[in-house]
Design a protein that fits this description.
Oligomer: heterotrimer
Distance between the termini of chain B: 44 Å
Number of helices of chain B: 5
Number of domains of chain A: 1
Helix content of chain A: 10-25%
Number of strands of chain A: 13
Largest interface: B-C, 64 and 53 residues
CATH architecture of chain A: 3-Layer(aba) Sandwich
Strand order of the largest sheet of chain B: 6-4-3-5-7
Structural class of chain B: alpha/beta
CATH class of chain A: Alpha Beta
Number of helices of chain A: 6
Distance between the termini of chain A: 20 Å
Order of helices and strands of chain B: HEEEEHEHEEHH
Strand order of the largest sheet of chain A: 2-1-5-10-11-12-13
Chains: A alpha/beta (about 250), B alpha/beta (about 150), C alpha/beta (about 100)
Strand content of chain B: 25-35%
Shape of chain B: extended
Chain lengths: ~250, ~150, ~100
């Protein structure tokens, strides 16, 4: 598959996120999460056998119903569900160690995985930009086996040297991953810093470094394979209204 | 909550205790007791038994945490609706103090499955009103003929 | 069982200055918006609000609120951030944010 012809950055990003999901896992995304919603629907269309839980209470909703707005609440993730399982139950499930993946996002992040969701600029009581808050990320990050931060922008304002006030930050004993439109950073279990794991076909390590405010030590990393025909077809099938483009 | 700066930021809301059954520590969060939970539902009877169609979010929990509940409802239904399948009553009458029949009571937002898209004209009018310090006038306009 | 039907303004009369309110729904979904607008045009003050994900109805009240307890306070995607929440919290804004998750 050829970049610019068969796929663009949104499709590569979505594919990278999709490849994180494995059979048998329990996977959660929250609200204001149109990108992971499309990705998880597409993973279902590819035949991945995972459990989909989210804020609309729906468990494994009917992914054949295409989202028509970017909202991740209500019928987009509810209609055709096989059961209901509310957010309070999801938090309890994850607190008991049964949750595999939580897809979360951020306003800013640094190399240690400290995440700003509360504010950017100023201080907590006098913020320049008041953010929406952690949306459960402070609750979920310490207890989720693999927290995956999806961020559809990769620049020095987002990937900063130091996050002053962390709405949440990773636990040493849990895996923690950051996926951007350029690459994947991962903090393995037992370690404290994000490492550049791989880059996407249309970029270079230098370009990643130019757009990241923290120091990247890795010089050579693998290039992730482009989306396959099947992966692109799955994305197209579940998302005819191109909700995926909303955040790019 | 470990790893979050929120814990140290709000000592009147978070407290760290030693786990009485182990050597570790636990973060405790202060319980909130709302004076009122105010909920919009699709179906309620005149006594305040209410059904929520579609996602219930945290409404049932808030109803239980609050001292009392005020319901606005798309429609009033007969109590027989609750008796058909009691498990579907999300809010039982004894928690409720007031029931207001208010069709469209979640507009310009969405109320599954009654209205499924945001009324963007009204929402934009609100965003404008915020900038112009005219939220009260916006409220008056939205409530014309409703009180 | 006791009958509890009231008009919108009768029910709104129950709300007084300084109360802690939990408004239902999430973001733009199933919020008690018209009830909140009835409160927004009254001279209420010192209100406190709470919820896991307060949405548009809570935002309508933010001019009258001194403290908001929340996990996520926003309207989601196309509807964006909560405008009055930002107006009264950013810079020297008087409302306090206490985040719970």
């Amino acid at each position: 598959m050829e970049f610019g012809k068969d796929y663009g950055k949104p499709e590569m990003f979505a594919t990278a996120v999709m490849r994180e999901i494995k059979d048998g896992e329990i996977v959660f995304h929250g609200l204001a999460s149109s990108t992971p919603m499309v990705v998880m629907k597409a993973a279902k269309a590819l035949g991945k056998d995972f459990t989909y839980v989210t804020l609309s209470d729906g468990v494994d909703h009917d992914w054949n119903r295409p989202p028509y707005v970017a909202s991740t609440l209500t019928e987009n993730t509810y209609t055709g569900s096989v059961a209901t399982f509310g957010l309070d139950e999801i938090f309890d499930l994850y607190a008991s160690g049964k949750g595999d993946i939580a897809f979360l996002s951020c306003l800013q992040i640094d190399k240690t995985g400290r995440i700003a969701m509360s504010y950017v600029g100023g201080d907590y009581d006098h913020p320049k930009l008041r953010g929406p808050g952690g949306a459960g990320s402070a609750t979920l990050t310490p207890v989720t086996k693999r927290t995956i931060i999806w961020k559809t922008a990769h620049d020095k304002r987002t990937m900063v040297e130091h996050v002053e006030f962390a709405t949440t930050s990773p636990a040493v004993d849990k895996e923690f991953t950051l996926i951007t439109p350029l690459c994947i950073f991962r903090k393995p279990v037992g370690e404290k810093l994000l490492k550049l794991e791989c880059i996407f076909p249309y970029t270079t390590v230098d370009e990643v470094k130019e757009n990241t405010a923290w120091v990247i030590d890795e010089t050579e990393v693998p290039v992730m394979a482009p989306p396959t025909e099947e992966e692109l077809a799955a994305l197209k099938k579940v998302d005819p209204n191109n909700i995926l483009a909303f955040e790019f | 909550m470990w790893g979050s700066d929120l814990v140290a930021k709000n000592p009147d809301f978070y407290h760290i205790y030693k786990n009485p059954w182990g050597d570790d520590e636990v973060v405790c969060v202060r319980a909130l007791v709302p004076d009122y939970a105010i909920l919009h539902v699709q179906e309620a009877d005149i006594y305040g038994n209410a059904r929520i169609l579609g996602p219930s979010y945290q409404d049932a929990l808030m109803a239980r945490a609050a001292k009392k509940v005020i319901l606005t409802t798309e429609r009033i239904v007969g109590t027989y609706r609750m008796q058909e399948e009691p498990k579907l009553t999300a809010i039982p009458h004894f928690l409720v103090e007031a029931v207001v029949e208010l069709p469209g009571g979640a507009k310009p937002g969405i109320c599954y499955p009654e209205y499924l898209t945001v009324d963007w004209a009204d929402h934009k009018a609100y965003q404008k009103a915020v900038k112009a310090d005219e939220v009260k006038q916006f409220a008056d306009k939205m409530l014309e003929g409703r009180a | 069982m006791k009958e509890k039907l009231m008009s919108l303004s009768q029910a709104a009369d129950l709300i007084q200055d300084g109360m802690l309110l939990a408004l239902g729904g999430n973001a733009m979904h199933r919020n008690p918006t018209l009830f909140a607008l009835e409160l927004a045009r009254r001279p209420l003050k010192g209100l406190k609000v709470c919820g896991a994900a307060p949405g548009i109805a809570t935002d309508y009240l933010m001019a009258q609120v001194d403290t908001a307890y929340f996990g996520f306070f926003g309207l989601e995607n196309e509807a964006g951030l909560a405008p009055q929440m930002r107006k009264y919290m950013e810079g020297d804004g008087p409302a306090r944010a206490i985040e719970g998750s």
